[in-house]
Amino acid sequence: MDVWGMGWDAERFAGILDKLVAAPEIDPIVFTLDIPASGAADGPMGVDMARTAAEYAGDKTVIFVANSAIAGVHGEIADICRKNDVPVLLGLAGAMRAIATWTRGKTTPVERDNRTQPDRTLSKDDIAAELNARIRFAEGTTVEEPDAAVEAATAFGFPVVMKGIAPNAVHKSDLGLVRVGLSDAQAVRDAFADIDGILRKSRETLGVGAIRVEAMVSDGLEVLVAGRFDPTFGPMIIVGAGGKLVEMIADSALRLGEVSVDEAAAMIAQTRLSTLLDGYRGDVAYDTEALCDAIVSVSALMARATADVKAVEINPLIVLKKGMGAIAVDMVIE
């Protein structure tokens, strides 16, 4: 149903929603919108829709779907939905599959291969330790002064990456806390000074920070592997283009719950990223098996996470040439 084909009218939308809520045969009610974090596109209408849904939905399940899986979600819409337990799913294709799976599970018995639901006992620290045990991370060390940073960079071999880390610095790049391709000692010293300045200036909001020097990983494909917990759908896993490929390949795949290796492979095949992994136009093929293992690991840990864990994200995971594995460059646990 096109609720703004005649132009947006919040009162008319409220009337339409009231009729949908009253219809017993309709459940859930799904809104698909272009609501990127930038606030553009359908953002203003989406805010009205979220407020109206919170007021009129009653016992009906209302779901917001952001058409793009990688453009984020309009902040005000996300806040309204979060406060009113309204799920927000990212990526139209994956969201529709997830909703279909969830709806079938509500109305018909679902075989689980005699598997019981896993206990949700893993804390954030537990998950971080498990991920480090299961997935290879970029080699790195924390440094306290410029000379130590240069020493570490020399040991790893130039170029290197430098990051500022802090308890509340979730999106480091957005805060100016990441420098890549540092090719000599002076570049390392300059980056240290810049990042140290940001951490000191933002200490009240970010918390006590530190600076980390890491070996730079190249010659691989950058992939996003993320787990999320939704109040309605439970744990879910998302895979798609990561890092610099996000803007070039805007698609992803989503599944509910814990996935197997075969299901992980099917998720990859659902995305255009699979073409690159297989070796586009005779180019080198990449280690899809290692990517599948990472997807399985994140989904398993998300399914066992305690209630305070809302997301587990590796972005990017650098998938290396076939047989060489994959290396995680950054991890966020919220």
Give a written overview of the molecule.
- GO terms for molecular function: ATP binding; ligase activity.
- The chain contains eleven helices and 14 strands.
- Helix 2 runs parallel beside helix 3.
- The radius of gyration is 22 Å and the shape is globular.
- The chain is of the alpha+beta class and 334 residues long.
- It has three domains: 98 residues, 3-Layer(aba) Sandwich (Rossmann fold); 127 residues, ATP-grasp fold, B domain (D-amino Acid Aminotransferase, Chain A, domain 1, 2-Layer Sandwich), CATH 3.30.470.20; 77 residues, ATP-grasp fold, A domain (Dna Ligase, domain 1).
- Strands 4, 9, 10, 11, 12, 13 and 14 form a seven-stranded mixed sheet that branches. The chain has a four-stranded antiparallel sheet with strand order 5-8-6-7, covered by helices on one side. Strands 1-2-3 form a three-stranded parallel sheet.
Brief characterization of the structure:
The chain is an alpha+beta fold and 334 residues long. It has helices at residues 10-22, 43-56, 75-83, 92-107, 124-134, 146-156, 185-201, 203-206, 261-270, 273-277, 288-303, and strands spanning 29-33, 62-66, 88-90, 136-137, 140-143, 160-165, 178-182, 210-215, 221-230, 234-241, 252-256, 311-319, 326-328, 331-333.
Which descriptors apply to this entry?
seven-stranded mixed beta sheet; Dna Ligase, domain 1; alpha+beta; D-amino Acid Aminotransferase, Chain A, domain 1; about 40% helix; four-stranded antiparallel beta sheet; 3 domains
Secondary structure topology:
Elements: H1 10-22, E1 29-33, H2 43-56, E2 62-66, H3 75-83, E3 88-90, H4 92-107, H5 124-134, E4 136-137, E5 140-143, H6 146-156, E6 160-165, E7 178-182, H7 185-201, H8 203-206, E8 210-215, E9 221-230, E10 234-241, E11 252-256, H9 261-270, H10 273-277, H11 288-303, E12 311-319, E13 326-328, E14 331-333
Parallel strand pairs: 1-2, 2-3, 4-13
Antiparallel strand pairs: 5-8, 6-7, 6-8, 9-10, 9-12, 10-11, 12-13, 12-14
Helix pairs in contact: 1-2, 2-3, 5-11, 6-7, 9-11
